[in-house]
# Entry
Amino acid sequence: MKFGVVVFPGSNCDHDAYHVVSKHVGQPVDFIWHKETDLRGYDALLIPGGFSYGDYLRAGALARFSPVMSAVKNFAGEGKFVFGICNGFQILCESGLLPGALMRNADLHFVCRHVNVRVENNSTPFTYELQNRKVLSLPVAHAEGNYTCDDATYHQLQENNQVVFRYCDANGKVTAESNPNGARDNIAGICNLDRNVLGMMPHPERACEDLLGSHDGLGIFRSLNHAIESVSA
Amino acid sequence: MKAKVYVTLKPGVLDPQGKAIHHSAELLGYKAIADIRQGKYFEIALDPTATEADARQSVEKIANDVLANPVIEDYRVEIEQ
# Structure
């Protein structure tokens, strides 16, 4: 089994993701420079947070044209796992691997704090070790996390149970006050129809050690690890 | 030959930046302003040997594929001789 962390010019959470996979998941992991086009040998790709291409044009818009992204699309098309966090989520939306778009936060502020998110769907490879409705404390750090989509897309997300995480209060109640960025219906993370591509704004890779204030992110990486094991078995 | 591309948020898509600018304009006393929506403007220098039809086709494509995100934005292309 092998994980890959895709690195674009301007990625800055690549080392955090690498650290979590190598130290806490205990699996081999490589950095993959964005010019790479051969992804054979990998079972899961992490698209990390940061400011790929300085967020020029739109967050995630230019990373989509990096050579690695055609390979990432094929990789996802084969049913292998792709997990985009923060800027990684923005890149997956811009490249069409996930529906919708991430806009400027409704209050225009860069929001950088721990938020609560509720597990909305635990029948995905990324969440199946978590309980539905479980509340996770995870940090967010973004200025463009305001998830938006048209009504048709929203109804599809609902019908197909593609909303994986929603912002909520400490008791798991989805409220306007607990929404840090104005995202439609408090959406914090979604998956594709086939459930093998996940994107989320909060940073589970920054919440895997008590020293960092929370280890609630670990369950997501452990779920993914076991999903890969059960596919390979 | 030059192309101008205007990228604007689709009607109905919330524009917090435009709202903030509008609010400031109101505070400054610009009373006749009803609303402000922020967009992007691109000037593209074109190959002088290209025909206008080819140039327009290329610019429409780059506007749709790159300059605008069709999920949230519309665009308009003008070609100038």
Q: What stands out?
A: The mean pLDDT of chain A is 97. The first strand of chain A starts at residue 3 and ends at 7. The CA atoms of residues 2 and 42 of chain A lie 5 Å apart.
